[in-house]
Specification:
Elements (H helix, E strand, L loop, with lengths): L1 E3 L3 H9 L5 E4 L3 E3 L3 E3 L2 E6 L5 E4 L8 E3 L4 E5 L2 E3 L1 E2 L23 E4 L2 E5 L2 E6 L7 E4 L2 E5 L2 E6 L6 E4 L6 E5 L2 E3 L3
């Protein structure tokens, strides 16, 4: 089914509801915590000005996509201002690689993420990545803009170790003012 959400609580609940396949977002939604996606889910903005963003308090990230999930986001601005994670180097002893030091808008582990017509912007991500991090995951980015993203390594899109089969296809997208 498809549902429309206008608050963070509605979005979080719809994302957890297995009966909901698509979420329509007509207004900007302010995140108060991260949303974990563990299934197939589509989130579509009503216009190019609608955003999914932090509520002003630093968050680790907006979305954690795991467990073979597929997240498709279309026609939305995605921003997290400043991740709550530091710029300190990563610990490689955690179960999810770089999870403790990577503060991107979206962190995907053994999952698939598609961004279509999105703007990923204005995020300070910590030591690794501020935009989209793929760890043993695949991504597809079409007609998107990645701008004003900051991280020690790879501010826009980070593929974690090709040996984990991370890959991304990028079409007709723009990357600018990332540091």
């Amino acid at each position: 089914t498809t549902t429309e959400t206008t608050t963070f609580a509605q979005l979080r609940n719809a994302a957890a509801d297995a009966a909901v396949a698509m979420i329509s977002v007509p207004v900007t939604i302010l995140f108060t915590s991260m949303i974990e996606v563990t299934r197939t889910l589509e989130i579509v903005g009503a216009s190019s000005e609608v955003a999914l963003r932090d509520a002003g308090t630093p968050l680790e990230r907006l979305f954690l996509v795991t467990g073979g999930a597929r997240l498709r986001i279309e026609s939305l601005h995605l921003l997290n201002n400043e991740s709550s994670l530091s710029f300190d180097p990563c610990s490689m002893t955690v179960a999810l690689p770089s999870i403790d030091c990577a503060g991107p808008v979206i962190y995907a582990y053994k999952a698939r993420v598609e961004l279509i017509g999105c703007t990923v912007r204005d995020t300070v991500g910590g030591y690794r990545n501020a935009g989209l991090m793929l760890v043993g995951a695949t991504g597809r980015v079409i007609n998107c803009t990645f701008t004003r993203l900051e991280a020690e390594y790879s501010p826009a899109i980070y593929l974690y170790y090709p040996l984990m089969a991370s890959s991304v296809i990028v079409e007709s997208s723009v990357f600018h003012d990332n540091v």
